[in-house]
Amino acid sequence: xxxxxxxxxxxxxxxxxxxxxxxxxxxxxxxxxxxxxxxxxxxxxxxxxxxxxxxxxxxxxxxxxxxxxxxxxxxxxxxxxxxxxxxxxxxxxxxxxxxxxxxxxxxxxxxxxxxxxxxxxxxxxxxxxxxxxxxxxxxxxxxxxxxxxxxxxxxx
Length: 156
Prior knowledge:
Layout: H1 3-8, H2 15-24, E1 34-39, E2 42-47, E3 54-55, E4 59-60, H3 62-81, E5 88-96, E6 105-114, E7 118-127, E8 132-141, H4 145-154
């Protein structure tokens, strides 16, 4: 999706819809993620620090950063395809650039390409003072796209 299209398009969901998914989803509730901002193809989540996030050495576990990036991208996709979209993570590459210690952080995700079968994007987690903590590249698969393509192949 071109950035010019993303800037003028309206999200197909609102912050309250996305926050409700976080609050009601048992697999996400314990993180206490907060939806900070959305735009078409973009989402920012805030991750409040919790002692349970710490790994030995007192730094925030990498799992928390990866979870935040995954959720932020999932929601960025929902801003383009709607709340009922069933996209799932196919691949994530994470680079840990700096540690977070006893602090909240934010994760901003952006859809780079919305394809017929795959969605590509990036996410970055930063401290509240904008220090880059992690960088993620993500690929999501759009369910149903394979079924359509399989049917087309069998028709050949």
